[in-house]
Design a protein that fits this description.
- The protein is mainly α and about 90 residues long.
- It has one domain.
Length: about 90
């Protein structure tokens, strides 16, 4: 396995991780900012008010796109296993 293959593998791993985590992080960001604006407007300083909606939103999103995320991870894992013979030379 040469340097180009290692860099390509690292790039693919980073992109796969971003594809898996990206939608969840964007959703949590949007929900968190929305709740933060609501708390600032109403002067409510309850910690669970920001945690519970984020948790519910993440659970709903994972239920909606979890199968796609699993497919992406399984495809990446298969590609990794297919590259095992290249490591030995």
């Amino acid at each position: 396995m040469n340097d180009v293959q290692v860099i390509d593998l690292a790039r693919e791993a980073i992109l796969t991780g971003a594809m898996i985590a990206g939608p969840i992080l964007v959703l949590v960001l949007i929900v968190g900012v929305s709740i933060g604006i609501f708390q600032a407007a109403t002067s409510i300083n309850e910690m669970t008010l920001s945690f519970v909606p984020k948790l519910i939103a993440v659970m709903l999103l994972v239920a909606a796109i979890g199968s796609w995320q699993l497919t992406v991870l399984v495809d990446f894992t298969r590609r990794i296993f297919e590259r095992i013979p290249d490591v030995g030379g």
